Each structure stands twice: as C-alpha cells, then as structure tokens.
Amino acid sequence: MFHCLFTVKVRHPAYIKVIKKVYIFASLLIFWMDGIYFEVISKLGKRIVVTTSRLDLIAKTKHPEISGKEEEVRETLYNPDEIRLSKSDATVYLYYKYYGGLSLSVVVKHKNGEGFVVTAYYTDRIKEGKQLYKRQP
C-alpha cells in the first residue's frame, strides 16, 4: 500500500467537486484494503470503523494494555458510560467506559457522520471537554 501527497491549485467548482469525490473514494479504499476489524454504530448514531492495522498499532506499540481487549473497545463505543468532546479538536470525541478502578478511553475522530479510532487506553482521569452523554445510574 502507498500514500500519495500532492497539492493541486484548482479554482473551478466542478474540478473541486471531482477532487473531493476522488479523495473520499480513496479514503474508503484505504479502509477497505486495510481491513475493517469491526464497526459500530455509537450511542450518538455515528458509524465508527476500527481497522486491523490501527488496532494492531495501538495494542503493539502505543498501549500494550489494550492487547486482547477488543471486546471492551467495542463495548465502550457501543455502550459508553460517558462521551466528551475534545477541548482541542471539535472533530475528536472521547468515549469512556468504567472497568474496575479505571476507565477505558477510546478516542475517535468523526467527520461527516463517520468515525475512526485514533487510540485507546486505560485512565484514572476523565479529560475536560463538553459532556455529550452520561449514562444515568
């Protein structure tokens, strides 16, 4: 798989529409080629995709404590205890589910009603940010 980064200076609206469609198609193709490990419709009604390579990167490199916890990640996205909007990026949502003394935090980037997992980790602190959802006791 390869990625190509380029800049195009186009001002004609018809060309801009075509370029946007090609970009969206290429993004979907990369997800398809990468392999979708699972997808979930979140509590907010958004489709979230978790790719095999992203889950491997998280579990093997960034947060090894997530290895073997795929079901917990899925459950956190599907049935969270709390959802917050990131203070620094309005397209990033933090999904939390309590497991014992810690919370599993799954960080998701949302665009156009779709989302993908950026990272997941256990934490003892909920980040600041606008609360979008909280489970009632």
Describe it for me?
The protein is of the alpha+beta class and about 140 residues long. It has helices at about 15-35, 50-60, 70-80, and strands spanning about 35-40, 45-50, 80-85, 90-100, 100-110, 115-125, 130-135. It has one domain. The chain contains three helices and seven strands. It has a seven-stranded mixed sheet with strand order 1-2-6-5-4-3-7.
Q: What structural keywords apply?
A:
137 residues, alpha+beta, 7 strands, 31% helix, globular, disordered N terminus
Question: What is the compact description of this entry?
Answer:
The protein is of the alpha+beta class and 137 residues long.
Topology:
Blueprint: H1 13-34, E1 36-41, E2 47-51, H2 52-62, H3 70-78, E3 82-86, E4 92-99, E5 102-111, E6 114-123, E7 129-134
Parallel strand pairs: 2-6
Antiparallel strand pairs: 1-2, 3-4, 3-7, 4-5, 5-6
| Shape designation | globular
How many domain regions?
Answer: 1
Low-confidence runs (pLDDT<50, min 5 residues)?
1-7
Structural class: alpha+beta
Determine Rg (CA atoms, Å).
Answer: 17 Å
Number of helices: 3
The proportion of residues in beta strands is 35-45%
Q: If strands are numbered along the chain, what order do they take across the biggest sheet? A: 1-2-6-5-4-3-7
* N-to-C SSE string, H for helix and E for strand: HEEHHEEEEE
